[in-house]
DNA sequence: GTCTATAGGATGATAGAC
DNA sequence: GTCTATCATCCTATAGAC
């Protein structure tokens, strides 16, 4: 058994810890550059390990990305389940889930990685995984949140609009472009301030 | 001056015609594989020309993609303007624009290419172009369609949900997966049949 | 205007030392 | 468990013939 406080060598840690570290780095890198655009070397640098190590630990770039996706889906669903398990009184579930969703943007890369998978539907492995995750979300909204069809539709649509605006970095122009300011203000009522905080946060991905 | 009906050589046509041909091919290819994932060689094959010719005509892969984006934005805006210029009576503008939007899916790759640009916000050139196009759409909905803020928000959100479902090829599972059937039915009321037609159409991009 | 040939650079993956 | 070295592949872009 190994101590968390005094690992024998800083450069030598349990496989599970490294794994988690790399998955976090990969989430940020894939979110920023996309599945094809990101390189295993970028992931390795962000995680502080060597490029071959990343490939060796996950088998391939594709398998790494699939794990990133699974992790993101798990986080998303468990976050929503936490809200449903302990809802605030006097606030609609839809609003609470919406807030929880925007809060997830703090995890730079998480929702962006999902978004990246959404445009890869024609890839056999990745497309299938993306659809599975999206359908799981639908099922949760229907069965656990007890949403009506219209609510589901509106909730998903709102989420995709947020994803899109974040994906295209619209908040970058919030201050410089009045039109962008107006769009963000009208399209994302009450979710704006959080989104802008995220936008100002330093990117965790080195250039 | 050259005749449209009798080009001297089938393999030799006016620059403008080839240009249009390549842009159409590029739209399909970029939509299917994304900006990074698509290769200039795939575009060339789809257009029936050589790979260096594609690069030479547009300067670079990036410039080609930017032209694809501009074309797509133009098509989108002019389609909407056509609806606004001759609206059907007794049908809300929002509904008519929504229908026009879904009809655009028939142009395989057009909306998908836009979607691909949405996830490339961190790319300086492409991100800027994507934001500009999105903002132009916002401006049109506000000034020409005279939408209220809520209408704009809902309209854009609905569009992004459609993009996402199309991007991840959810309609591929329409028949095999009951959950997918239900999701598509509830999330896209009255737009479904058109979307499924598109899904069944043969891909214009060779494997 | 269009092609063939190819240079030049990057990247995913493997082999093997420590 | 982790790294260095390196291979093989692929892809954009250029050069130059026709």
Structural class of chain A comes to mainly alpha
Let me know the largest β-sheet of chain A: none
Oligomer: homodimer
**Mean of residue pLDDT values of chain A:** 92
* Low-pLDDT residue spans of chain A: 1-9
Report helical residue fraction of chain A. 55-70%
Q: How widely separated are the two ends of chain A?
A: 37 Å
CATH class of chain A: Mainly Alpha
Number of strands of chain A: 0
Strand content of chain A: under 5%
Round the Cα radius of gyration of chain A to an integer and report it. Answer: 19 Å
CATH superfamily of chain A: Tetracycline Repressor, domain 2
Please tell me the CATH architecture of chain A by its name.
Answer: Orthogonal Bundle
**SSE pattern of chain A:** HHHHHHHHHH
Structure characteristics:
homodimer; 207 residues; Tetracycline Repressor, domain 2; 69% helix; disordered N terminus; DNA-binding
SSE layout and pairings?
The structure is a homodimer of 207-residue chains.
Chain A (H helix, E strand, L loop, with lengths): L14 H23 L2 H8 L3 H8 L2 H25 L7 H12 L5 H9 L5 H20 L5 H19 L10 H10 L4 H9 L7
Chain A binds a DNA duplex (18 and 18 nucleotides) through helix 3.
Overview of this structure, please?
Two copies of one chain form a homodimer. Chain A is an all-alpha fold and 207 residues long. Helices cover 69% and strands 0% of the residues of chain A. The first copy, chain A, has a single domain, classed as Tetracycline Repressor, domain 2, CATH 1.10.357.10. Chain A is globular, with a radius of gyration of 19 Å. The N and C termini of chain A lie far apart (37 Å). Chain A binds a DNA duplex (18 and 18 nucleotides) through helix 3.
